[in-house]
Amino acid sequence: MNISRVRATGSYLPEREVLNQDLKQFPASSLPLIEQKTGIAARRYAGENESTSDLAAQAASTCLRQANLPAEEVQAIILATSSPDRMQPATATRVQSLLGASKAFAFDVNSVCSGGVYGLEIGNSLIQSGVVSNVLVIASEVYSRILNPADFSTYPYFGDGAGAVLLERSEGPAGIIGSILRSDGAGHDVIQVPGGGTMKPYSRMQSPREQYFTMKGKEVYEFAVTRAPEIMRELLASTGLAPECISWVIPHQANVNIINAIAAAVEIPRERFLVNLQRYGNTAGASVFIALDELCRSGEVSSGQIVMLVAFGGGLSWAASAIQF
Amino acid sequence: MHKIIACLKEVFPDCDPATITPDTRLGDVPGWDSMNSINFLMELEAVFSVSLSNATFTAKQQVSDVAELLRGKGIEL
Predict the structure, then answer these.
(1) DSSP-based three-state secondary structure for A204
(2) What distance in Å separates residue B44's CA from the closest CA in chain A?
(3) Interface pTM (ipTM) of the complex?
């Protein structure tokens, strides 16, 4: 049996913590709304000289140390990010250089907040197809650089961070049991950074605001609370797993109200849903990996337990994966 | 009133200024939600050079309520 197992995980959160009350550009009377509406009390921001690849390399280094695997033995690096270092080349290549993973090939995946789960399934496919026997899947985001500091509808939600998962070929039974990836391009403009690409180069932007991340909040909420439960049920059906088989659910850490609504819509008790967004905010594609690493480091996940990851975000895209530990 | 409508258009790009009247409910402005209502409040503060720090807008309020608030701050519309 050829299966991809999680050999190790890692994460990195920048040192600088920003509390809601530190967001002094907004009216003081509005600040309690942040926690009320999202559950977020704090977030981390990357240091001035830290970029997405730096955070990714930190998380990956921790992961490789935990696995006791030299970087030169890594065969592939997949970096999920929607806040890349540069338009090109792939941010993953700088991560490869920082790690010294000289024998790997490295590329990026941009599925916004679903990116981590997308990357995981692509890595799984590379292993299952025999292309490689191990893959370092990293998700890293520095949203503090793509958000409008004056936009109350986005800025307080997000934080910076990175997570990493080392997958390796195994005989099983522990490993990725199944995954489902979905997207709906009709919603391509619901979440976007309008300026800076070929559709609207910087030279053609009508307002500096177009360089920043935007989202249609109500549409995102409706999308998330509909699609996430749907794909979780679909994954249970396709893998033959009963809801009671799922020991932990790691949802994308978008908003605690979204997570509560998802939990209410599926047959898995709310207490099995991990939530850390109160400390880190929404770290976009990295959020699921950061929470997975916290779970693994807590020692609360035991051999044989099944963890379900579910993510949703720009594209629109959504994805779920079931992993046995 | 046109300056208030311009503020709405700035914060809610999907709204059509031609459809906004004093009776329009703020909650009916495309894109309106409680978080964006803070952006609208900040835009009003910047455009009218006024402090609205203790003000809040709800979806049930109308554009005319915004005008009344501003007039109460001595702004001529």
Answers:
(1) helix
(2) 13
(3) 0.83
